């Protein structure tokens, strides 16, 4: 291969003392692309926990990392579920301990995580062609706080991998309510109900 590559033009900043930086889009509208809400693991490494980590240790890690959700990986590094801060701080540990007849300190992350089989998933190609309004409808339909996003694995034809996830809470926070307020407020209320479990 004799490809010819060209250098990009370089800007001279010798006389530039300061320059503004790009800011993430904080508000979105219902007609905006749904991709804006994707937490893309191809761009940002996800926070993970081992499935065999003690629940008490996982609780500490989640507090220190200040993150409401972590992926759970098995010993081969594959994602097998998710763990939320509500899972470790709520009634799940006590219920799991009673069900298994064991003490809470003996519980592992795998005992209280939400397995992949319990989670809704959409394909990345569908997300790319969807609007924020489409996501609203999807969250209303699945009654879940998270949507997993799968993508085709070009290294293994016919297989998919976990590309990222979409959080309903972020959708609530970033929805732009200043235009068409009455109609948008209805959608906002519906999403809040989904997030808080009020179906």
Describe the structure.
By secondary structure, this protein is α/β, with parallel strands linked by helices. It has one domain: CBS-domain (Roll). Helix content is 34%, strand content 19%. The chain has eight helices and eight strands. The strands form two sheets. Strands 1-8-7-6 form a four-stranded mixed sheet. A four-stranded mixed sheet has the order 2-3-4-5. The longest helix has 16 residues. The protein is globular. The relative contact order is 0.16.
- Identify the CATH architecture: Roll
Query: What proportion strand?
Result: 15-25%
Helix content: 25-40%
In CATH, the topology is named: CBS-domain
Order of helices and strands: EEHEEHHHEEHHEEHH
User: Could you tell me how far the N terminus lies from the C terminus, measured between alpha carbons in angstroms?
Assistant: 59 Å
Q: Write out the CATH superfamily name.
A: CBS-domain
Largest sheet: 4 strands, mixed
Q: Work out the number of β strands.
A: 8
Mean pLDDT: 83
What is the CA-based Rg, rounded?
21 Å
Number of helices in the DSSP assignment:
8
What class would the helix/strand composition place it in? alpha/beta
Overall number of domains: 1
CATH C-level class is Alpha Beta
* Arrangement of strands in the largest sheet: 1-8-7-6
| Dominant shape | globular
Low-confidence stretches: 177-187, 194-199
């Amino acid at each position: 291969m004799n490809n010819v590559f060209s250098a990009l033009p370089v800007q001279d900043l010798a006389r530039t003392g300061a320059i503004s930086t790009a800011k993430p889009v904080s508000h979105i509208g219902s007609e905006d692309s749904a991709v804006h809400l994707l937490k893309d693991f191809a761009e940002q490494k996800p926070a993970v926990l081992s499935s065999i980590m003690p629940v008490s240790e996982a609780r500490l890690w989640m507090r220190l990392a200040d993150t409401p959700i972590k992926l759970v990986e098995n010993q081969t590094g594959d994602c097998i579920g998710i763990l939320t801060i509500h899972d470790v701080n709520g009634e799940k540990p006590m219920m799991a301990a009673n069900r298994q007849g064991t003490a809470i300190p003996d519980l592992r992350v795998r005992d209280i995580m939400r397995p992949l089989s319990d989670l809704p998933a959409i394909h990345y190609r569908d997300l790319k062609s969807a609007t924020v309004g489409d996501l609203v409808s999807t969250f209303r339909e699945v009654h879940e706080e998270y949507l997993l996003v799968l993508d085709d694995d070009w290294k293994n034809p016919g297989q998919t991998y976990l590309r990222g996830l979409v959080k309903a809470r972020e959708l609530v926070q970033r929805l732009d309510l200043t235009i068409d307020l009455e109609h948008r407020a209805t959608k906002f209320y519906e999403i809040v109900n989904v997030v808080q479990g009020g179906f």
